[in-house]
Amino acid sequence: MKNKLGHVQVNIDPKNIVFYKELFSFLDWSVLYSDETTLGVGDKNGTSVWFTSPLKEMKNDYDGIGMNHLAISVEEQGNVDHAVSYLKGKGIACLFETPRHRPEFCGNANETYYQVMFESPDRILFEVVYTGLKQ
């Protein structure tokens, strides 16, 4: 069976929609839908992420049951560094000693896994990652 990831829904505090809209605009995703409580963004492959109001108030814990993080793959290692500059300009901290290379995630000495991790105002953990030949 041939398939692909269609969409992901992430529940957020609506006051933070601008954060997600700016982040995904920076990452070159298109806005599919936007109002006061919902934002839908899509990539060039037809995958979408929808940010919307939760049905109940709870704090997110990415180390608990549920999704740990959402990773956005980029085509060049330098794009990770560009994301780091964007994050620093917005006052967003890089987490877990990133950006850094993670050789333990590569199966080949000629390749790299280079990442930056950060959390949103809603404590949603994100990763921008380059995987491929060392550059």
Descriptive notes:
- By secondary structure, the chain is of the alpha/beta class.
- The chain folds into 2 domains: 1-56, 2,3-Dihydroxybiphenyl 1,2-Dioxygenase, domain 1, CATH 3.10.180; 59-135, Roll (2,3-Dihydroxybiphenyl 1,2-Dioxygenase, domain 1), CATH 3.10.180.10.
- The chain has 2 helices and 8 strands, in the order βαββββαβββ.
- The protein has helices at 17-26, 77-89; strands at 7-11, 30-34, 38-42, 48-52, 70-73, 95-101, 111-119, 125-133.
- Strands 1-4-3-2 form a 4-stranded mixed sheet, with helices on one face. The protein has a 4-stranded mixed sheet with strand order 5-8-7-6, with helices on one face.
- A hairpin with a 5-residue loop joins strand 7 and strand 8.
- It starts with 6 loop residues before the first strand and ends with a strand.
| CATH hierarchy class name of the largest domain | Alpha Beta
Specify the overall morphology: globular
Helix percentage range: 10-25%
In round numbers, the mean pLDDT is 95
Beta-strand segment tally: 8
The tally of structural domains comes to: 2
CATH architecture of the largest domain: Roll
Structural class: alpha/beta
Key terms:
2,3-Dihydroxybiphenyl 1,2-Dioxygenase, domain 1, 2 domains, 135 residues, alpha/beta, 8 strands, four-stranded mixed sheet, globular, 2 helices
Topology:
Layout: E1 7-11, H1 17-26, E2 30-34, E3 38-42, E4 48-52, E5 70-73, H2 77-89, E6 95-101, E7 111-119, E8 125-133
Parallel strand pairs: 1-4, 5-8
Antiparallel strand pairs: 2-3, 3-4, 6-7, 7-8
